[in-house]
């Protein structure tokens, strides 16, 4: 079945002023290493690609790292000194700002913000994490052209003219094991927020607790995909959407009134009714991930992130951009390497030698020039290394002192927090159970229905066995409770034995 976002792709655009003509006719292989799936895109044709067939002969290979594995910060680079590189300054500042361990090696992706001069968006990820994630792919190829931070993938929608860049757009993505909100302002990344535990796996785990029905995770996803958000599924999804609503209500980065569009998507594709329910809960119109795209051969179910990887790579001109996290880049073309340049110079010198005497003089001059240039480079790099080493030692001392102080504060805070949580939990649960039992007793008394047994199955579910000489009284009681704002009822059939009507009902606290 074709995904909604694969509808009428007309080819690349230059809306943002950046042409992707250099990628025309080039096959781009997108790889989701977390799901072991790959696709080959060429212009507007897409086809599945066998994982084992990926090799360094593929002209371009693209993958991504998940948002949950990234450390993000926004940095002011106006305080950098003339004696250090921008990359060195940002890396040093990010370690301090994010309180990262200096003994741990991190890869950095960074780019200037468009809304504030001298400010940069910086993403860091453990080099060990990248190596572990990409290891299955590296069995087949030694080169990976792009490793993109997940929040930056949406840039391709604007680079290729799929979305108008003159707006503020929000993307809510709910994956199996991560969920986040990312905002783009005027076609540029603005910020990203994690939605914590509210993933598809979390919803699957909550379904039995809310409905009382056990279900396997795969069956839950199939049910959610097939039936959409309706009936009992509304209660399952509501907690997630209320949390998203709270995130929007507390955004300090921008006013929600400025948001033009909200798109919502998941790892299992479009879920019917999810965007409509999200619109009601958030208070802003939400849409499915349904964009103006179409690929020949796109009938297979393609994960949306693979499409984003293709669009992103198609708009990139330089794999050595500081935004790229890949440590596995291809070597430059031979004539662009130092060795290639040297061979070219040697060729010129040889031709000159055949035409006129003095080839030895030309060679000596070239050697001297190269030695002097390399000497200057070495001296400059050594000064930079010395400065960074000195700064690293001072930073390490400061970090160790802060780390010790933070550990003591954290231990004290955890002790106090556990005491408060324990006390609060006991008070709240006690009050809730007493209040619920009081309400049930009142309903029973008002309707003239007797009870044989009351049991508390969980904090939110109470089972009551009813009996009465009149089945109408039991029916009226069930409808009365269902019409309340606080409770929901699941009732078994009413049975009769020796003139006494009996029914077991489960009362859920909303």
Automatic annotation (TrEMBL):
<keyword id="KW-0175">Coiled coil</keyword>
<feature type="region of interest" description="Disordered">
    <location>
        <begin position="1"/>
        <end position="22"/>
    </location>
</feature>
<protein>
    <recommendedName>
        <fullName>Pilus assembly protein PilM</fullName>
    </recommendedName>
</protein>
<feature type="compositionally biased region" description="Low complexity">
    <location>
        <begin position="10"/>
        <end position="22"/>
    </location>
</feature>
<feature type="coiled-coil region">
    <location>
        <begin position="371"/>
        <end position="419"/>
    </location>
</feature>
């Amino acid at each position: 079945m074709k995904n909604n976002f694969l509808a009428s792709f007309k080819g690349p655009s230059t809306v943002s002023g950046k042409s992707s003509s250099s990628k025309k006719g080039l096959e781009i292989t997108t790889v989701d290493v977390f799901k072991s799936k790959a696709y080959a895109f060429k212009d507007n044709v897409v086809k599945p690609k066998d994982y084992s067939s990926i090799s360094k002969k593929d002209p371009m290979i693209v993958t991504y790292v998940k948002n949950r594995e990234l450390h993000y910060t926004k940095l002011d680079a106006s305080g950098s000194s003339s004696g250090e590189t921008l990359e060195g300054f940002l890396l040093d500042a990010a370690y301090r700002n994010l309180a990262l361990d200096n003994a741990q090696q991190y890869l950095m992706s960074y780019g200037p913000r468009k809304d504030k001069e001298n400010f940069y968006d910086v993403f860091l990820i453990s080099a060990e994490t990248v190596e572990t994630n990409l290891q299955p792919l590296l069995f087949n190829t030694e080169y990976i052209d792009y490793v993109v931070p997940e929040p930056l993938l949406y840039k391709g929608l604007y680079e290729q003219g799929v979305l108008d860049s003159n707006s503020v757009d929000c993307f809510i993505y709910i994956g199996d094991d991560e969920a986040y909100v990312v905002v783009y302002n005027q076609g540029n990344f603005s910020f990203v927020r994690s939605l914590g535990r509210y993933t598809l796996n979390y919803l699957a785990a909550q379904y039995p607790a809310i409905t009382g029905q056990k279900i396997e995770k795969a069956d839950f996803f199939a049910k959610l995909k097939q039936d959409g958000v309706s009936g009992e599924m509304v209660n399952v999804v509501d907690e997630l959407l209320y949390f998203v609503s709270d995130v929007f209500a507390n955004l300090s980065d921008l006013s929600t009134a400025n948001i033009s569009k909200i798109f919502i998507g998941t790892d299992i594709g479009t879920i019917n009714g999810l965007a409509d329910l999200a619109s009601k809960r958030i208070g802003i119109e939400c849409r499915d991930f349904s964009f103006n795209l179409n690929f020949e051969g796109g009938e297979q179910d393609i994960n949306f992130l693979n499409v984003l990887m293709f669009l992103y790579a198609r708009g990139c001109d330089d794999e050595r951009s500081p935004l790229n996290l890949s440590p596995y880049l291809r070597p430059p073309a031979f004539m662009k390497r130092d060795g290639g340049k040297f061979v070219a110079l040697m060729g010129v010198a040889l031709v000159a030698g055949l035409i006129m005497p003095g080839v030895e003089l030309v060679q000596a001059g070239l050697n001297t020039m190269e030695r002097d240039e390399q000497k200057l480079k070495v001296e400059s790099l050594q000064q930079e290394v010395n400065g960074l080493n000195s700064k690293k030692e001072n930073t390490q001392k400061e970090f160790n002192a802060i780390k010790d102080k933070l550990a003591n504060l954290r231990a004290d805070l955890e002790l106090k927090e556990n005491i408060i949580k324990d006390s609060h939990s006991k008070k709240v649960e006690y009050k809730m159970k007493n209040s619920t039992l009081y309400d049930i007793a009142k309903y029973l008394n008002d309707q003239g229905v007797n009870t044989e047994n009351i049991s508390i199955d969980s904090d939110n579910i109470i089972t009551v066995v009813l009996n009465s000489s009149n089945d109408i009284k039991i029916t009226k009681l069930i409808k009365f409770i269902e019409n309340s704002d606080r409770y929901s009822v699941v009732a078994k059939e009413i049975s009769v034995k020796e003139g006494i009507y009996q029914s077991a009902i489960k009362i859920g606290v909303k």
